[in-house]
Fold FAD-binding domain-containing protein.
Amino acid sequence: MSLTSPERSDLEVDEVDVLIVGAGPAGLMMANWMSRWGVRTRIVDKRGTKIYNGQADGLQCRTLEIFDSFDFAHRVWRESNHMLEICLWNPPEDMDPANPSIVRSDRIPDTIPGLSRFTEVVLHQGRIERFFLDSIKENSIRTSCNGTGLAGEIQVERGVLPISFSFDESLAEDNAAYPIQVRLRHLTEEESTPAHKATSNNGQAVQNGLFRSNLAADDTQDLIRQSGVLGAKAGREEIVKARYMLGADGAHSWVRQQLGFKLEGDSTDYIWGVMDVIPITDFPDIRMRCAVHSESSGSVMIIPRENKLVRLYIQLTTTNTASGQKVDRSSLTPEAIIASAQKIMRPYSITYKYLDWWTAYQIGQRVGDKFSLNERVFLAGDAVHTHSPKAGQGMNVSMQDAYNLGWKIAGCLKGRWDRSVLKTYQSERRRIAQDLISFDHRFSRLFSGRPAKNAMDKEGVNMEVFKKAFEEAHMFTTAIGIDYGASLIVAKEGSAEKQGDGTDVIGDASTRVFSKQDRAKDIKVGMRMPSLKVLNQSDARPWHFQELLKSNGTWRVVIFAGDIRNADNKARLDVLGQKLASAESFLNRYTPANEKYDSVFELLAVHSAPRREITIFDFPEPFRPWSDQDGWDYWKIFVDDESYHEGHGQAYKNYGVDPSIGAAVILRPDQYVSWVGDFDDYAAMDSFFSGFMLVQSPSHIPTTQRGQAKAFSDNKQPLFLLEQKLTYMNGSKNGVTAMQQGISVVNGAL
Amino acid sequence: MSLTSPERSDLEVDEVDVLIVGAGPAGLMMANWMSRWGVRTRIVDKRGTKIYNGQADGLQCRTLEIFDSFDFAHRVWRESNHMLEICLWNPPEDMDPANPSIVRSDRIPDTIPGLSRFTEVVLHQGRIERFFLDSIKENSIRTSCNGTGLAGEIQVERGVLPISFSFDESLAEDNAAYPIQVRLRHLTEEESTPAHKATSNNGQAVQNGLFRSNLAADDTQDLIRQSGVLGAKAGREEIVKARYMLGADGAHSWVRQQLGFKLEGDSTDYIWGVMDVIPITDFPDIRMRCAVHSESSGSVMIIPRENKLVRLYIQLTTTNTASGQKVDRSSLTPEAIIASAQKIMRPYSITYKYLDWWTAYQIGQRVGDKFSLNERVFLAGDAVHTHSPKAGQGMNVSMQDAYNLGWKIAGCLKGRWDRSVLKTYQSERRRIAQDLISFDHRFSRLFSGRPAKNAMDKEGVNMEVFKKAFEEAHMFTTAIGIDYGASLIVAKEGSAEKQGDGTDVIGDASTRVFSKQDRAKDIKVGMRMPSLKVLNQSDARPWHFQELLKSNGTWRVVIFAGDIRNADNKARLDVLGQKLASAESFLNRYTPANEKYDSVFELLAVHSAPRREITIFDFPEPFRPWSDQDGWDYWKIFVDDESYHEGHGQAYKNYGVDPSIGAAVILRPDQYVSWVGDFDDYAAMDSFFSGFMLVQSPSHIPTTQRGQAKAFSDNKQPLFLLEQKLTYMNGSKNGVTAMQQGISVVNGAL
C-alpha cells in the first residue's frame, strides 16, 4: 500500500495523533475540532496558497448552527448575503417564439420559516476558511497557554505533498499505537503554485477556477514528478507517524487512491459555467435567488452574493460522455458564459464591468464505496461524494462529514470512549452521501431540462413539479432533516443496517436502550436538537437553547423536570439528584479522577415553574456544580417562561414535553439526539453510556477493560491537558464569556 | 493663557486638524469619528498604559445604538453581561431588630421593553477602549489605503503630557487657520506609570483604582514637575498646531484649567467603596442587578458582570465636607468594604476568593460653566460633569458628548457646513449635563438614605418612591429620552435658549423652518430616530431601520412615500424625484463637483405598498443612484411589509405615519431627527439645509460665501480623500458589507 517505502532512515520522524491531508472546509473543520480537544494534529495541503475568491459559497442553516457552536457564525452572518426568497422565471404561456421572453411565475421562501435560527446565506469559501483558521489558532493557542505546551498551535502547512503511505494493520485495534506512516515532501513555492493563468477581462486580471474544476486533470502526479525532477531544489522530506488520519483532499483524493477505495457512479451530460460579477442589468430580481428557464436557450441560476456580486450558474452545452467525447475547453470563456446568460434572460439585459471569478464544470454524481480503513484512516468531503453544486450542498456536506467525525476520534484518543463509536461515521455519513446523490439526480435533471411547453410535453420540465421539488428538498438541503439511524449512540428502534449504509453499529446488544419518543415528541432521536428560547433561572437572560450546546466535546443530559412546585416532580428530581451525585453514577464513573464531571457530561435543567417562584437552590447540587474558588455555577438551570424583551419560547409546548410528566434527553457532542426518556430514568441513562464509555476511575474498571484503560494511561497525551481545556470551555473558569458568545438571530424559530 | 511660551524655536512643529487630549472613552469616541472622516488627528494621554480592568462598566441602550452605528456593538453584546431585571431587597416589615434581615420586596425590568433594540449591559472599560482602538485603526487604515496617505493612521500616544497652551483669538473665525498651539512633552515610561501599588488580597496582587478616584489629588502638576526635574532623561518636546482641540482629560482636566473654565456644584457627604469579585454566596439574586437597603447598616448595589464577576457598590461612611474634614484613606480596604456588604446583606453570607479590582470615591455633583472656547477648543466628559456612578451614566454621557461633537467639527473641517453648527454642542450637551446633575441629586439621596421604617418616617426613604424614581429615570438614564432643543439643525418651535443651556443657536432666522410633527407622530423632532424593522425592496431582507444609519457623516432624507400604487402618492413621488434630480437641488448644490451626492446626503425610501407588487424601478432615479461601474444601487429603497422570518415591523403604524399622506424626515449624521414634514415638501428641505450647508459648486456660491469656499479649496486636505472614504462607507464600493455589519438583537423593538 505504498508508492515507495517510507522507511528511509535518514528522514526525520514526527509523531502526531491526527494527520489531516487537505485544508479545504472538511480538513479545516476536522482541525477545528482537534484544536478544541488539545489533540496533536498536523494538517497539510499541496497547494501553496489559500483561496481568496470564488469556489463554493452557499451556507445552509445547519452549517451556520455548527459554526455557532464554534463561536464564529456571527462573523458569517454579518459578512454574508442573506438569501430570503427564490423567484422562478419562465417563458410566459402565450409567448411569441419570435420574441423570446421570461416572466416571474412564482416566489417561494429560500428557507422555510421556523426551521432554524438561521437562514441560507452566501459568502465565498475564502472567508469561511479564514474564520476556521482564526478559530483554530485562537483555540489551539489557548490549549498551549494552559501551560502544557504538548498539543501546541495547529497551523496549516501549505505546499506539502504526501508521497507515500503505509499502514500496519496489526496495530489497527491498539488505540495507543501509530499504525499509519506517511512520507511528506515540502514543495518549493514554484511547485506548489497552480499553473493557472488569470483570465484577462475588461483589462482586469481575473481569477478562474478551472484548475480546480473536474474538467481539469488531477495534477498530483505532476506535482510529484515535477518535484522529483527538481531534485535538490525541492524542499525536505519527512516521515509522519499518526494514530488517526483524514483524507479531505478533494475529488481526486490521493488518500483514497492509496486506500484503493472507489467512487461509484457516473458523470452527467451537463456542462455548466459559473461566474461572479457585479451585474449591470434591468432584471428586477437580480438580488433574489432565481431559477430562470428559457424556452430553448437553457437555464440560469442567480445567486446574489456579498460585496454587490452576483453568481450566475449557466448551462452551456452538453457533452456525450458515454461516447468519451471531451469538452472543448477553449470554448469556455467569460464572454461565452455571459452571452449564454444574455440569451436566456431576454428581454432583460445583463452585462458587467467587474468580473471576480469564473469556472466551468461537468456534473459528476459519485459516492465512495468505503469511508474508512479499519476506522483508522477516514475520508470526507469531495473525496467520497461529488455532485451538482447548484443546491449549495458540496461545502456544507463536506464540513458536516468532518463535524460528525472529529469528536468521535478525539474522544477515542483521549480514552473517553470505545473505538466502536467510530463505525458510526461511515454508517451515518455514507448514508447521507447516498441520499445526496439520489436527490441530486432528480434535482439536476429538473434544473437542466427545458421547461415543458404544456401538460402534454412529457420531456420538458413541469414548473409545478420543479417548485415542489425545490420545496420538498428543503429539509434535506438545509441538513435540518438529517436523521441518523439506530446505533450504539442513537437509541432508537429498528435495524441499524437499514437505517445507515449497511454497517453494523449496534455494538453490545446487552446495553442497548430504546427511547420513549413520546416524552418529547418534537425532539426527534437521531436528529439535531431543535432550538427554542429559554431563560437562565439566575439572571433571566434568554438563550436560544442551541447557544448552550457549544462544541466542546461534552455529552449533555438535559432534564425537563416540569413544574417543580409540584411535589411529585420535585420528589422525582431529588431522587435523580441523589443517583447522579453517587460515587458510582455514570457522571463519576466515566470522569477521570482529577477532573470535574462537567468536563465529560454537562447536566442542564429546563423547568416550567414560574421563574419568579424558583431559585437555583430548589435544584439538587449536581445541577449547580460547586467550586471552592467560584462558588455555585449559575449557568446550568433554565426556565420556560416569558422574557422581558424576546417573547416566550414556549419550549415545553414546542418540544412536545408534558410539564406534568417531563422528559430527559441525551445529546451527543455534535448536538444530535441520542436518547429521549423519562426524566428520572437514571437506569436507562446509565445503561446507554455503559455501551461505549470507558470507566476512568481504576476501582470501577471491570477486568475486561483494564488492559484498554492501561493503554490510555500510558498515552503521552496527559488527561490534565484535556481537563484544563474543557474546564475553560465549559465555563468553570470563564462561564459567562463562553455562554455569551452565542448569537440570537431569529426569534422563536426552532 | 500659557504656563510657558510654546514658541521655543528649536522644537519641531506638527500641524493637525484636531488635537485630542485624553484617551478615555470620550477622547476615543472623538478619534473614532475622525477616523471615519479621514481627518488629520492626534490623540494623547498622560498615562503610560491603557486600562485593563475595573472602572466604569454599565452601557446604556443609546450607547449600544451608537456603537452599532460604528459597527462594533456586536462585540460588546457578545462579551458583556446582560442585565435584565432589578431586584429590590429591604428589611421585612416585621423584622426583629435583634436579627437583621432582608427580603426581596419587588422586581422591575432593568430596561423598559420596547425602548431600544438593546438592553443595558455591563463590560469593563478596558474592553470598550479596546473596541474603539480596533475601530479607529481599521478605519484610519482604510483611509490611508485609499491611496492618499494624508490622514494616516490615528494612534493613541500614551505618556504624552501637554505642558503649555496658547490660543490666537484673532484666527478663531477663520476655519482654515490654526489658532491653537500646544507644547507636548513625551514622558519616559517611569514618569507615565501611575505610582499606585497593587493591593495584595488572598495572596493575589489586585489592581485598585484609588489613583484615579476623586479621593486622590490631581497628579498632573506632579508629572510636569517630575519630568522637569528628570531633565535630559525626560523625552523630547514638540509643538502641535491645531485647527480644533478637545479636552477629554477627566475631572482634573488640564485643558479646562488652561481655559480658565469652572466646574460649578458641590460634593456630597457620601463615601462609597466599589469592588469586583467572584462572589461565594447563598444570596439567590447575585446574578441580578440588586438594590439592597439594610435597616441601619447602609446599602449595597449589586451589578453582575462578565466573567463571573459581580460588582458591589457599598456605602461606607459619610464625611463632613462642609467642615473640611478629609476621609481617612487608610480605612478604605477591600476587607473593610466586604465587611460592610456582609453586614448589609445579613442573613445571607457573601465572601470571595478572587478580587479583580476595587476603589472608593466621594460623590461630587458639578457641571462646567462653559463647554467651549470660541467653538475651537471643546471640553467633554468628566472634564465638564461629575456625579454618582451608580446609575451607570458617566462613561455613557461622556461618550455621547463626543459623539455629538465629532461630526460637527469634521463637517466644518471639510467645508461641508458653517461653523455656526458648532454652537449647538454646548447648547445640547451642557443642557444634558445640567439635567444629569439634577437627576443625580435626587437619585443619590434615595440610594444612600436608609429605608423608611413606616409611613410616618419622613427622613427615611420610602421604597415605593425609590422604585418609582428608578422607573421614571429610565428614559433619561438610557439616553433614549434625550430631546435636543430648537436650533439651526433641529427644526422645532420655541425658544432655543430655553430648550438648551441658554446659547443662541437659531442662526439665520430667515431660513428657519418648522416641522409638521403630526406627519410622523412617533419620530420626534430632537430625539434619536427610533428603530423598526423594514425590508429591503430588492432582496426582502429585514433590517432594523437604525442599522441603515451608520455613522459615516452623511445627512439622511427619509421619504415615507406611502402606498405608491396609489396614483396620487406616485405622482407626488415623481415630482419630488424631478426636483431632487435637478442640478440646482440641495443634493447637487452642497455636494462637491467631483463627488456623488450620496457622500453628503443619503436618500432613503420606505414605502407601504405590498413588496411583491413593486420593484425599485417604480422609484425615481435619485432613490437608486446609478454607477457606470456597478449599475443600480439596490440598498436605498425599503418596504413596510411582512418578513419571512422576523415578523412585520409595522413601521408606518409604529412611526405614526399615515400611508395615504406619507412623511419626510431629515436625520442628522448622529441619528437625531432634524425635521419632519410632508414627503414632497422639497421647499422646506431645501430651506432647512440652506441654513448651514455651504454651497460647493462654484456656480452656485452666492457672493457672500465665496471667500469661505475659497478657504476650503485652499485646504491641504483634498476633498477626494473624503469622497473615497465615504463612497466606501456608503457602500457604493462595498454596499452589502457595510450594511450587513449591523446586528439585529431584539425583534420589533423601537
Summary: The first helix of chain B runs from residue 25 to 37.
